[in-house]
Amino acid sequence: MEGRPSISTENNEKSQEIQTFQNEDGTVSSYFDKRKVRIAPRSTLQFKIGPSFTPKVEYNAVKDVRTGKKVEFEIKPRIDRGFDFIENEWIGYKRNYFTVVSAFDTPNMTLEQFLQGSYEVRPENSHSRLKVRYFAVKLVAKCIEDQSQINLVQHTAKRDKGPQFAPPIHPLVPAPLPNHQMIREASNVRNESKMKKFDHDFFLHRDRILQDFDDGCIIYTYPNDTIKKVARYERIQFASSITVKKPTQQSKHFVLQLVLGCCIDGNHMNRDSNSEYYNLDTYDQDADTTFIPILMKQTPALIIRGRSPSNYPQQIKTLSTKEETIIAETSSSNIIVEPKFCKRGRKKKEYAEEEDDDDDDDEPIISERCNNKREKKSDRNSKPIENPEAHLTYIEGVKRKIVPLVLQSSLTARDLELLPKTSMLSALHNSLEADTTPSFHLSPLNDYDVELLSIQYDPFNLENHHPYDQQPLTEGILLGPLESRKRKLSNKSSISLLSETKLKISKKNSTMVATTTAASNSSASSVSFSTFHSFAPISREYQHHSATVTNNFLIKHISPSQQAQGNNDIPRSTPHVNNPMDISFCLNIEESPTSRQRPYSSKRGIVTAGGNSKPSELLNSSDLLDEPSFFRH
DNA sequence: GGCGACACAAATGT
DNA sequence: CACATTTGTGTCGC
């Protein structure tokens, strides 16, 4: 307790591996180390808000033709899956999906005014002002060490059975960013009525707008009638070919960049490698359209863990007999010994249950073995169990979790998960004191002016030092003070459950207010602090419960330098604009902007492309496929 | 040691 | 409640 931002209440070993924080919308973000604990693939614990993005870096200005004034833009990106905050680092897994979502806004203009307007941009390398056809965002990744661009791949829900493609450029109109919860709920919807429920939050249907707009205003020059309000980059992975470690075995550092741009007719690529947005513009040959960057936000350094078994809970094969293989799994202090009946000698997975607070649950529970070969309970008990503590599978934990969730004075993340979603939202809230809000800040800066170097998490005002790699300054990285990273964040605070089961937090119109002091959009290593403040409004009928949650993040920002990367060997993606409702493909063209649409390769529907990339790196996208998979069913 | 491919399985969606 | 889907990850074999 004592006012910690963590809301876990459990004391058992598993729970200590999970740090849970509440999000502003009532959901929680539970960070855990996949080297230590395995959580079921579809667990809601796999959804979590990732690192905040840096303040925007501005590139080209856009002028409102009517007023002649520069238009202000803001982008609101958020990571909703795939990155855990572990011992002062943001950790992702090469094999796992991550999600980045973003909307953009024009703070000084209403949507109507925006749609009614027309806009011009004058790219750095151009002498004339060019008419903006539409605004759009794109997602790119870079390796900090060498500034190289990193290919990203997007899958459909079908994963290997479906196509792979580059995260497309998404044409967008200004809109609020749906909260984390809505992104969760919309992630795998196929049901039509459910789709409709989300439609308004994610799409603007130009053809359904009664209002009439002047000829030539921007709404008419968007490429499709169905225009996205939110870019949802779901099921994204780093290209499988990336190396996540340097030759020295130290981890590389990556950043994700969300770029707002405008698309104009013709090829206006800026090939000046000194351009501050070199490699951020994109020419789409098919549409003969160029994406001109307006502004960008990026994540702090990210660590990506590869496929090495060392990045997963250790397995130790201890015995193999003719009929069965005994495998001991050590996960933290738990040791599970189980026989193996699976074909091919495969080991059954064990999923951690976050907690077990029933006193009578001391009996260890081993999950069923392979599908049709469950052990009898008696057999199970006769197995040599090393750990007297209960070790529940996810499913069994749930089954046994018959806890009155309402009126409970405190609950855990697991409790929250067990609640119906709507209740879960309302379940939160709590008694976190002001000083319990998570606060993030960066380590003392150094002279590395290119990227946001590190983040330190100091929720308890403890001095956590940054465990950054201390090494090769060859890339010019100055690392923060290294120090003990042993300290673990406490997970002892609790959250109280509101007695009102019907309390609901509105899913819509979550507002975010970012206050930046000493913003730094300039070039070299400038630093700023900003407070990120968010509110999740409660739906009207329940506002009196004042369940609005507030999170404050103190962030020390370093503006990314816009110096060039000068790596010619990095493929530049040039997807063409997507049509949200048809099946045109966005192709990722490597240095040769020649080829366009590619058919699926013969194998398993994977799109292949020519050029200098390996098949797995060639990214194509279908807009249709970019939509929730339900559009395809 | 890494990667593509395939497999298993657990929670979610219908 | 049953079946289908989605996605973390175990594993084989190159």
From TrEMBL:
Residues 1-10 have a biased composition (Polar residues). GO terms for molecular function: DNA binding; DNA-binding transcription factor activity. The lineage of its organism: Eukaryota, Fungi, Dikarya, Ascomycota, Saccharomycotina. GO terms for cellular component: nuclear chromosome. Keywords: DNA-binding. One of its GO terms (biological process) is sporulation. Residues 12-316 form the NDT80 domain. Residues 352-365 have a biased composition (Acidic residues). This is NDT80 domain-containing protein. Residues 12-316 bind DNA. It holds the Pfam family NDT80_PhoG. Residues 370-385 have a biased composition (Basic and acidic residues). Residues 1-23, 346-385, 594-621 are annotated as: Disordered.
